[in-house]
Amino acid sequence: MSCEPDLKLGLIGDNIARSRSPLLHRLAGEQHGLRVQYDRLIPRDLGEDFDAVFARCARGGYRGVNVTYPYKERAAAKVIVEDPLVRAIGAVNTVLFEPDGPRGCNTDYTGFIAAYRAARGEASPGVCCLIGAGGVGRALAFGLVALGADEIRLVDSRAEKAEALARDLRAVSAASKVAVFAEAADAARGASGILNGTPVGMVGHDGTPLDAQGMRGAAWAFDAVYTPVDTRFLRDADAQGLETISGYELFFWQGVHAWAHFAGLPLDEARLRVALLERGEAA
Q1: CA-to-CA separations, 87 to 92, 109, 139, 189, 279, in angstroms, rounded
Q2: Active site residue 8
């Protein structure tokens, strides 16, 4: 019997030892009787830089890879991006290795929209404070435009990144007002939605990007972090009475959408959710 997988995938990123993406894609494969190999590829642990790991995947039999922090913008420069909106986002988290070269997609963008709609239906995001203008922050910002946010207030520790994102958002839509703030507390004042698009709060990056007091008066909060699921940011938001959307929902939906790109096969999403819960942290 051959030991070769039916589908070879991977995840390139830092601090991904607890990522559940390998489990999600193996379970997706099981729905179709496919054996999926999904490797965690941490450049530092492999003794290589991102470029070397990416090149090795491209020639090493991988159907595709997911890309996570902090490499999404670097990945975008290496791939063909057919969707003009994804080109505007400037970050990709899903790469397909095709005969004519690697192609990039952004299922963080589509996954966030799906997670928001599942939680809040057709409700408008309103005025939103988005902390973080990196790879995932850019996907969230464009998602907020698609969802019809009235205003997007951007905050990043590197002001130039927030300014660049603001320019890119204004170039694709005038429907949402866009402003850049130096401090998260100022941007959150009077906001309806508060979003964390930074790694702060994940394993190895303890803390929160906004004090609990800064959330007072808002209606909803979203945290892109999902390891752990119950971040301090979301606990504080819940204590302040906000409706919360966990990063686990983004993880789930971006994975479902990535699977569609990788395999082109449908999923029983409810069954996948149950299996992920039952299998817990299984490798």
Answers
A1: 9, 12, 11, 32, 36
A2: no
